[in-house]
Write a structure and sequence with these properties.
alpha/beta, ten-stranded mixed β-sheet, two-stranded antiparallel ribbon, about 20% strand
Amino acid sequence: MKKIAVVILNWNGQKLLEEFLPSVIQYSSEANIYVADNASTDDSVTFIENQYPAVKIIKNTGNYGYAKGYNEALTFVEEDIYALVNSDIEVTKNWLQPILELFDKDETVGIAQPKILDYKDKKMFEYAGAGGGFIDKYGYPFCRGRIFETLEEDKGQYNDIIDIFWATGACLFIRKKVFRELNGFDSDFFAHQEEIDLCWRAFNKGYIAKYCGLSTVYHVGGATLKTGSPMKTFLNFRNSLWMMTKNLPAKKLFAVIFVRMLLDGIAGIKFLAEGKPKHLWAILKSHFYFYWNLPKYIKKRDLSQKENYHKINSIVHRYFVKNGKVFADL
């Protein structure tokens, strides 16, 4: 039995599968390949059955989004390592082997990601994951190669292997035993930030996340939910607050979330000044959801949370005040 499963989550993505599934099949001889389908209404499943009969199909009974979609599907996948790959990812030759070696060398490595470059401009890092993810004191995620909207050109500066805080859900490797110990993604998130929450929970349990710059994939990005979508704004802001409530150390919980909500308010004013009132409303709605569900998320807290989760205190201050636009400036 092969030790790794490449699992692609699909929802009405026949065109993406037609474009990107061939590279996965060509360069993934070490893996069994699955497509987890979220009850698509297009011809995705028929296309796979007819064109790629060796690909195993898992049929979810509804459109469960990213988090629950993977949770449901992975109950049927028994390989030791899961590679969760977006349907808009182009993989490259030898993308699996360097990451498999990381898992083989160290049992404490629970999660990993490759280098993520932009499919549309292959010399640039891509927003979702870039050169490995970190988080600041107030729950703002950033990456080597991407801070807020500033992307770096790939000049080999991140062709290394390092410990990171979170790995992107666009191409996330995780041990089956870790995924199941953590009870998978938090399905309440639906989409966005669920991989950071998963990595944070793994971190609190002593597992290490790694970035491997010896493996490269190309990501289209925004193929499911567009960057300018108010729904995306709502999910990101809501899920960030939920994630921090679950994972922050107890003595920092109130103060950090209070400051974060003030910063959310500033972001809302900025959206309004830019003529984007729907995004302001998305932030307000995210806060309503946060308050309404606060008791539920307090109950989801683990018994212990580690203190040293963040690399810097405020990426907002470094970026907007100190002009720290690239990772080297931090």
